[in-house]
Design goal:
The protein has one domain. The chain has three helices and no strands. The longest helix has 23 residues. The radius of gyration is 16 Å and the shape is elongated.
């Protein structure tokens, strides 16, 4: 019996699990970005700016990779999700009292 595959050669079940991981990653990024400072995850107690930038770039790289694997025939969708999320989250921080999108920590 042949297992259905996507165009990357992944079994359909594996592709769905990666899609779930992609959406979970998106939810986590939204939570980490918009939550109060005391709930945000961090790599170190005192994070230098390059660590913060590494976290952001890494999170969106993982997000983009997971979405691209999940939806290989829809690169525009992936682009809109990744870059749209980044833009919307930066703008949303303006309206949250405990966050400031203009100030860099």
């Amino acid at each position: 019996m042949r297992v259905p595959e996507n165009n990357l050669g992944l079994p359909k079940v594996t592709n769905r699990l990666i899609a779930v991981a992609a959406w979970a990653c998106l939810v986590f990024i939204v939570f980490a970005t918009l939550s109060p400072i005391y709930l945000r995850p961090s790599l170190t107690a005192t994070e230098p700016n390059f660590v913060v930038m590494f976290e952001r770039i890494g999170a969106f790289a993982v997000l983009g990779s997971l979405f691209l694997i999940s939806y290989p025939k829809r690169p525009v969708f992936v682009f809109v999700i990744v870059f749209g999320t980044a833009i919307v989250l930066e703008l949303a921080q303006i309206f949250i009292p405990t966050r400031d999108a203009r100030r860099r920590v």
